[in-house]
Structure formats: C-alpha cells, structure tokens
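It is time I had a proper look at our fold encoding. Can you supply me with one protein entry, sequence and fold together? It will help me judge whether the discrete encoding reads sensibly. Leave the record below and I will have a look:
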Amino acid sequence: MGLEILEEFRPVTPIQAISEARRFNHGAGLYDLDETKELDNVECHTPKSPAHTFKSVPLVCPPAPKKPRPARIKLSPPAQGYFKVPHDLASVFISLNNPSKKIRAS
C-alpha cells in the first residue's frame, strides 16, 4: 500500500561527529573545552548581599493608576456667526431624479 519498506531504500548510516577542540566565547575569546566545561558547571544563584536587597520592604501596595478626566473645553461661537437655516430642511437639499444606486427589493 505504500507503507512497506523497499529493499532499495536502506537505512542511512549515522555520521560520526568530531568534537571541537576549542569553543569560541564572544566575551573572552577562545577557551579550551575543559575550561568551558568548568564554567558550565558553575550554578546560577540569586545575589543575597545587602547591596542587592531592598532597603525597606513596602508594606502596602500603591493604588492602581486612575484614568485622567477629559478636559472640559467650551468653544466660543465662530466670529462670522452661524448660517441661517430655514425651518424646512428638505428645501435646502436638491432631490436627484435618477438614483446612482439600484435599490434592492427582497
């Protein structure tokens, strides 16, 4: 069915990798492998000296930040004044005889 292993496809032999004699460290240049293994064995730990600790522990959390209120700006009327608008707004607009879009009736 296609899942059978054919004789012409033999398993690939593994490639033998040669270990590097030196490893490059960007900070200090080239080191021997033995020196890098010693550096890798050093465990990380949290600094606990007085220089690295807080001077005073905060007893109460500070309050949450508040959203600033929007500024109330009252605009003055325009210097030219407002346009006079008739009471019947339909008389201001011109009606189009031919609509530019077709109206769908469903």
